[in-house]
From TrEMBL:
GO MF annotation, one: N-acetyldiaminopimelate deacetylase activity
Identification of the protein by name: N-acetyldiaminopimelate deacetylase
Pathway info: Amino-acid biosynthesis; L-lysine biosynthesis via DAP pathway; LL-2,6-diaminopimelate from (S)-tetrahydrodipicolinate (acetylase route): step 3/3
Functional description taken from the UniProt entry: Catalyzes the conversion of N-acetyl-diaminopimelate to diaminopimelate and acetate.
Active site: D72, E131 (proton acceptor)
E.C. number: 3.5.1.47
Gene3D superfamilies for this protein: 3.30.70.360, Zn peptidases
Family the entry assigns: Belongs to the peptidase M20A family. N-acetyldiaminopimelate deacetylase subfamily.
Enzyme class, first EC level, given as a word: hydrolase
Keywords in alphabetical order: Amino-acid biosynthesis, Diaminopimelate biosynthesis, Hydrolase, Lysine biosynthesis, Manganese, Metal-binding
Organism in which the protein naturally occurs: Aneurinibacillus soli
Co-factor(s): Mn(2+)
Keyword check for Metal-binding: yes
SUPFAM superfamilies in UniProt: Bacterial exopeptidase dimerisation domain, Zn-dependent exopeptidases
Length: 378
């Protein structure tokens, strides 16, 4: 089994944790990663940037194919509430989805292969804007990516609910199809004391938020799975002014595209109903849409067998989750898989208190280095 000194990558993770940035604005993150790459021996390495992302080629000794690992880079608009002494230095932003861990692990694996080259070429992909508006699709269409397109590709995501030392996955559909959801309602504002002269968009938004919950409950086959979550409502300007505008922001998750179309058409019908019922105008924007994460059956089962046989980590066969990931677009074009990495913390992804166990960094570097070495000689 490969032994790994993960301490430098724990420090890297802590530095990255301090500088979370929004999608396509990962400027400090990109610079920090580039500065680290410059400290490595350059003989076997080439790199190039794509927008705020980075692609790194670690050259094989006698390459027959290219193997990819992808790490996402962006943070989330969350005010951090952890006990860390290396908290976010960017007010209102936090690495609450583990991308700091994913990048540190990527650098750890890359560093291992710079010092221990294998037969095949390895491509490390640091991708911006996973949380939105979605960096994978435009990156896949770029010339920079096309020149180093991998033949198979892997990624991981931290899993708060799984123990450190474990990896969890399944062949087939692992994550759902997603669509963002932004609904604007425009009515007639007015004085709080004269409601009969106005069309109150706070009341309309409240009705709509409640009605949206009927879509999954009443329009989707209970044996299928779907989610409609409204995560944010904004409306009004002052307590004694009737609001002329309200905005609902949410996300849709489905396991099939058929259900995605059904959910969207029901949402459109409900918004028309609100327009008629509250004499207002509604508009819907579906923002960024991600396709499902579909793990290639053969490669995933092969990896699961390898984990079991090598004893590199505890293997958990997990169910499908309604999370989304634009890594699904890589898997649509290139066979591979994504796995959950156990980080054992009571707070979930996107929570202001999440503190993933950093011991998982060593586990991930060990698993990925071991597996990619095997893969490079298959
Ligand atoms: C792993 C994870 O938490 N991914 C995000 C992906 C966001 C997709 C998109 N911006 C949306 O909100 O629909 C997730 O929320 O699952």
């Amino acid at each position: 089994m490969t032994t790994v000194n993960a301490q430098p990558f724990v420090s890297i993770r802590r530095h990255l944790h301090r500088i979370p940035e929004p999608g396509f604005a990962e400027f400090k993150t990109q610079k920090y990663l580039l500065d680290y790459l410059a400290t490595l021996p350059q003989e076997r390495m080439e790199h190039k940037t794509w927008r705020t992302g980075i692609l790194v080629l670690v050259k094989g000794t006698n390459p027959t194919k290219r193997i990819g690992y992808r790490a996402d880079m962006d943070g989330l608009p969350i005010t951090e509430d952890t006990s860390y002494d290396f908290k976010s230095e960017h007010p209102g932003y936090m690495h609450a989805c583990g991308h700091d861990m994913h990048m540190a692990i990527g650098l750890g694996v890359l560093t291992h292969f710079v010092h221990h080259p294998v037969r095949d070429d390895l491509v490390f992909i640091f991708q911006p804007a996973e949380e939105g508006p979605g960096g994978a699709q435009p990156m896949l269409e770029s010339e920079e990516f096309a020149a180093w397109r991998p033949d198979c590709i892997f990624a991981l995501h931290i899993a708060p609910e799984h123990p450190v030392g474990s990896v969890a996955l399944k062949p087939g559909i692992l994550f759902a199809n997603t669509s963002e959801l932004f609904i604007d309602l425009h009515g007639k504002g007015g004085h709080a004391a004269f409601p009969h002269t106005a069309n109150d968009m706070v009341v309309a938004a409240a009705h709509l938020a409640t009605q949206l919950q009927s879509v999954v409950a009443r329009n989707i086959d209970p044996l299928d799975s779907a989610v409609v979550t409204v995560g944010k409502i904004e409306g009004g300007t002052k307590q004694n002014i009737i609001a002329e505008h309200a905005r609902l922001e949410g996300t849709i998750r489905t396991l099939s595209m058929e259900s995605m179309h059904k959910v969207k058409s029901r949402i459109e019908a409900l918004v028309h109903g609100i327009e008629a019922g509250f004499e207002c105008q509604g508009s819907i924007d579906y923002g960024a849409n991600y396709c499902q994460v579909y793990n290639n059956e053969d490669i995933t089962l092969n990896f699961m067998d390898w984990v079991r046989e090598s004893g590199t980590a505890e293997l958990i066969e997990c169910p499908t989750a309604m999370t989304g990931e634009d890594f699904g677009y890589f898997l649509e074009q290139t066979p591979g898989f994504l796995f959950w990495l156990g980080v054992n913390t009571p707070y979930g992804l996107h929570h202001s208190k999440i503190e993933p166990s950093e011991d998982a960094i060593e586990v991930a570097i060990r698993v990925l280095s071991g597996y990619l070495t095997k893969k490079a000689f298959e």
